[in-house]
Amino acid sequence: MAVIALASGKSSGVTCSALALALSSPRPSLLVEADPSGGTIRTGFLQGEGSAQVGLHRLAAADRQGTLATEFSNHWVSLDQSHSGARMLLPGLTDPAQAPSMARTWDAIADLIAVMDNRGYDVIIDAGRIVPQSETRLSTSVYPAPLLRAADVVLLVVRSTQASVVSAAPAVRVLREELAHNGTGADALGLLVIEEGSLSSSNMQQWLHTAAFASLEWDPDTADVLTHGQFKKAGRTLLRSARSAHDRINEVVTRRRLQLARPAPAGG
Questions:
Q1: How far apart are CA 113 and CA 5, in angstroms?
Q2: What distance in Å separates the CA atoms of residue 70 and residue 55, rounded to the nearest whole number?
Q3: Which CATH class is domain 3-261?
């Protein structure tokens, strides 16, 4: 299975992309809405379904009380109408002011995500817009840096427009250094290209010096559904391309896991 984190340098459709990947996963999926600016899926796509008494904002208190492991799955809500448990959401913060309270809890949540991975889930992490501490480090006081460090891959969501590529460049630098020194390696970072503009993936890879792991077709009608919950307008293009993206992302995950498990060559 896979732990896939999505982030951006500027608003680039991270939540919509994460939701598309979660809904189209070939396996059971858990979408963790870890954006420190707050969650929007419950009030948008889910149209207010579910209780505000559950969600990420409650887990910091559970961690302090020593009940996080037992409470974790109690804070999930279903993403599909069948309520089969195959598509689940851990709703995000209800107020950005809650973000600092999560600082000591992210590592424990990363451990629980690893458990879900071992149980056969694809875990998709919506980390929103990055919050740097410096030019080479992510903030650990308000940003879920431990989740990105532990992820199999970190996808920087970039639209195929010049403006989006320019705004992504500083984020590439921060994420590459963060993952190189504190994560599973700089090669965990890749682009998730939203094909809105005219730039080719090859040009974007050259400008950002980062591989494009996958792409999503530009489908504003379905994106509107995923953002606002207007179900009758939903199309198939975005979710179809998200299923194809899963295949390419999982190839990267499989390759990296094999590389990380390979013993170092003997010296001499």
A1: 11
A2: 14
A3: alpha beta
